[in-house]
TrEMBL record:
SMART domains: Gln-synt_C (SM01230). Residues 13-97 form the GS beta-grasp domain. Keywords: ATP-binding, Cytoplasm, Ligase, Magnesium, Metal-binding, Nucleotide-binding, Phosphoprotein. The lineage of its organism: Bacteria, Bacillati, Bacillota, Bacilli, Bacillales. Belongs to the glutamine synthetase family. InterPro entries: Gln_synt_N, Gln_synt_N_sf, Gln_synth/guanido_kin_cat_dom, Gln_synth_cat_dom, Gln_synth_gly_rich_site, Gln_synth_I, Gln_synth_N_conserv_site. One of its GO terms (molecular function) is glutamine synthetase activity. It comes from Paenibacillus hemerocallicola. L-glutamate binds at residues 264-265, 322, 328, 340, 361. It comes from the Bacteria. Its cofactor is Mg(2+). This is Glutamine synthetase.
Length: 474
């Protein structure tokens, strides 16, 4: 969409506000709204100023002036505002016109540029499966003398015996019993369908939606793959629509990886492939799972660099409450066809040559998608460049249920880091693959590690209620 097309859209739709958005290091969208009467061609040339010192991990107060440069290709009409509004994603620049090296969206674009410069392919395609919960109530607090959280859902297993005004109608979703049941057990068909309707109006191509495994309203909606930066843009749009549709229904949605103890968490399985023009580079008929040597080297790079990569794809302390054995969590750094206990799965059902891909199952939606997709691509490209063969390094293929192996057999399999601090240690030790082509800078990586270590410390120094259960009577 050209600048003129955006200006025409503003006029045709009687748009009152233009909402300029960028993404911080956390992956959360930030925004500044301008009256449409103040938006003209110069706005798209000069950008929109903002204070970078107020965004965690960006700039000091002495160098806080920054500029959002709008990307007109991302424009869509906000489906939630009472006053007609157009949303436009932006890249971040310094006042002297330089692309800001800590801007996640610019990092994603540099990763795509590096792919082409490396002469491997012309485009990398990504498709995330971002799971979430829809709750009816959420409460939490942490302070000097108290710490707790409490969530509730009308369909949760723990409410099977609750007395309610008008009676308890039953059909609660059992623990681990929520995978694709029909109504009345699946009580959220309409809310998911409404989310899909709004996503389609905003430009996403919806493939399907369904209830997920966990009790208490776990859901999944899948949208069509696209190139790296566009998919990251689409994921921000997806989360925005999920959050706000849930709120319109008087509910609350969360992409937190592990909001409930004892049931499945929410992941963000990421399908990915590389094309050279119209030619898929991951397909080789008759090979294992019809996977080419290029694809094997790519997934070899992901598995080889996984401990460091996970600091970016699973960047929260809560991420590691999900990454434990026994909850369909992909903690095993191996690859396999159709095997959901492996960190890298090669889908084999109803797959065409152009649909041949790998699926990295470890990530979750606390990840900043621009950074996560870029880091996965760079790990994969490093695998291709250095011919990292996962078969020779003991990463598989592994076509058995790993959870059912003996302890001795499991000990032979490399696992993901156990904590965020361990993942950050790995990233500190292994980050050269991220700096290829100047995509990530050493300054960015150091700043990112410091920011995430601060988050980990803020959790680690606080008293946990379970400690009272274990130690209060000592």
């Amino acid at each position: 969409m050209s600048v003129q097309n955006v200006l025409n859209l503003i006029k045709e739709k009687n748009i009152e506000w233009v909402d300029f958005r960028f993404v911080g290091l956390s992956g959360k969208a930030q925004h500044i709204s301008l009256p449409s009467s103040e938006v003209d061609e110069d706005t798209f040339v000069n950008g929109v100023a903002f204070d970078g010192s107020s965004i965690p991990g960006f700039r000091g107060i002495e160098e806080s002036d920054m500029v959002m440069m709008p990307d007109t290709e991302t424009a869509y009409v906000d489906p939630f505002t009472a006053h007609p509004t157009v949303i436009i994603m932006c890249n971040i620049y310094t006042p002297d016109g330089e692309r800001y090296e800590r801007d996640p969206r610019s990092i994603a674009q540099k990763a795509e540029e590096y792919l082409q410069q490396a002469g491997i392919g012309t485009a990398a395609f990504f498709a995330p499966e971002s799971e979430f919960f829809i709750f009816d109530d959420v409460r939490f607090e942490t302070g000097m003398n108290r710490s707790y959280f409490e969530v509730d859902s009308e369909e949760a297993a723990w409410n099977s015996g609750r007395k309610e005004e008008g009676g308890n109608l039953g059909f609660k979703v059992p623990v681990k019993g929520g995978y694709v049941p029909v109504a009345p057990m699946d009580s959220q068909q309409d809310i998911r369908s409404e989310m899909c309707r709004l996503m389609a109006e905003a430009g996403l191509r919806i493939e399907r939606h369904h209830h997920e495994v966990a009790t208490a309203g776990q859901a999944e909606i899948n949208f069509r793959f696209d190139t790296l930066t566009k998919t990251a843009d689409n994921l921000l749009k997806y989360k925005y629509i999920v959050h706000n549709t849930a709120r319109q229904y008087g509910k609350v949605a969360t992409f937190m990886p592990k909001p409930l103890f004892g049931d499945n968490g929410s992941g963000m399985h990421v399908h990915q492939s590389i094309f050279n023009g119209d030619t898929p580079l991951f397909y080789e008929k008759g090979a294992y799972a019809n996977l080419s040597e290029t694809a094997l080297y790519y997934l070899g790079g992901i598995l080889h660099h996984a401990p460091a990569l996970i600091a970016i794809t699973n960047p929260s302390t809560n991420s590691f409450k999900r990454l434990v054995p026994g909850y369909e969590a992909p903690v095993n750094l191996v690859f396999s066809k159709g095997n959901r206990s492996a960190a890298v799965r090669i889908p084999i059902a109803a797959v065409t040559p152009k649909g041949c891909r790998i699926e990295f199952r470890t990530p979750d939606s606390t990840a900043n998608p621009y950074l996560a997709f870029a880091a996965m691509l760079l790990a994969g490209l490093d695998g291709i460049k250095n011919k990292i063969d996962p078969r020779k390094l003991g990463y598989g293929p592994f076509d058995t249920n790993i959870y059912e192996l003996s302890d001795a057999e499991k000990n032979e399999i490399r696992s993901v880091p156990g904590t965020l601090d361990e993942a950050l240690d790995a990233l500190e030790a292994d980050n050269e693959f991220l700096t290829q082509g100047g995509v990530f800078t050493k300054d960015f990586i150091s700043n990112y590690i410091d920011l995430k270590r601060g988050e980990a410390k803020s959790v680690n120094i606080r008293i946990h209620p379970q400690e009272y259960s274990l130690y209060f009577d000592c």
